[in-house]
Amino acid sequence: VQLGESGGGLVQPGGSLRLSCAASGFTFSSYAMSWHRQGPGKERELVARISSAGGTTNLADSVKGRFTISRDNAKNTVYLQMNSLKPEDTAVYYCKAAYGVMNYWGRGTQVTVSS
Predict the structure, then answer these.
(1) DSSP class of residue 26?
(2) For 28-79, what is each residue's pLDDT tens digit?
(3) Rounded to whole angstroms, what are the CA distances from 19 to 30, 35, 101?
(4) Are 107 and 19 in contact (CB under 8 A)?
């Protein structure tokens, strides 16, 4: 099983990034996918979640209206489009796959929002 995040980097406040998480080694289309983040000195928190077929999404209040989660089951990839980024969005972003008691995590990608 592998989950590989990409797309992180340094961006100015108000900018945008799109994170990708490519999955392999399991039946991607059966798993709910989510993005989590852990900022400096903070606990890991849920940012966004999408159901296995993509029909249901949930976003944390702190990112509603700015972030969008989507998935392409043909490409075994989940995305996080992040717009209007703020310094408080600075964190390591992780993707997670969940199915029943099975949970897989990626290694994360750093997002830094700074001028």
Answers:
(1) S
(2) 999 999 999 999 999 999 999 999 999 999 999 999 999 999 999 999 999 9
(3) 21, 10, 25
(4) no
Q: Tell the residue number behind the tokens 């296995």, with chain if given.
A: 52
d(CA 98, CA 32): 5
Q: Count CB atoms within 10 A of the CB of residue 32.
A: 18
Structure token pair of residue 113:
């929002």
Strands 109-113, 9-11: pairing is: parallel
Q: What is the β-pairing status of strands 17-24 and 32-38?
A: unpaired
Amino acid present at 115: S
Report d(CA 22, CA 76) in Å as an integer.
6
Sign, Cα dihedral of 57, 61, 65, 69: negative
Task: Provide the sign of the torsion angle of the four alpha carbons 77, 7, 43, 67, taken in this order.
Answer: negative
